[in-house]
Predict the 3D structure of the following.
Amino acid sequence: MGRSRRSSSRRKRLSVAYLSLGSNEGDRRKNIDDAVRLVSCLDGVKVKAQSSLHCTVHVSDPSQPYFLNAVIKIETLIPPEALLESLLDIEKKLGRVRITRWGPRTIDIDILMYDDLIYDSDTLTIPHPLFHERRFVLELLCEIDSKLRHPVLDATVSELLRSCEEI
């Protein structure tokens, strides 16, 4: 069971989450478009904003094909762990096979933030533990909401972008 600094409520409430999407295998643009479409089809989810697409080198293995990346903002009634399960199902539907860690993938969908939640379980950490170190993620988040505040680092994404050293 995950630990959270915010108490849970039995009444469903609308939350705002930010998701990153990346693809470096197959038709990357179609993979991202299909993922956004499938996320928007989830019961209790509405896509509110989508960043532009950004092409990047694989962070830990530059020999892999380039990634195409995007960030979306959603409103959701789905709690974080259930949302993660739904996103993993979408990845499978779009052909993702997890063979090696950090290997090529048709689609990768990560929960970057979920409201101001700080959450840690065996399967999910919110905020995403590395997004503040990834310039391309910060740039895409800034397109959607530059004043979005990281609840652990207590800085806006635009402040994090200014201090990000990754090229």
Summary: The domain at 12-129 is CATH 3.30.70.560 (Alpha-Beta Plaits). The chain has one domain: 12-129. The mean pLDDT is 89.
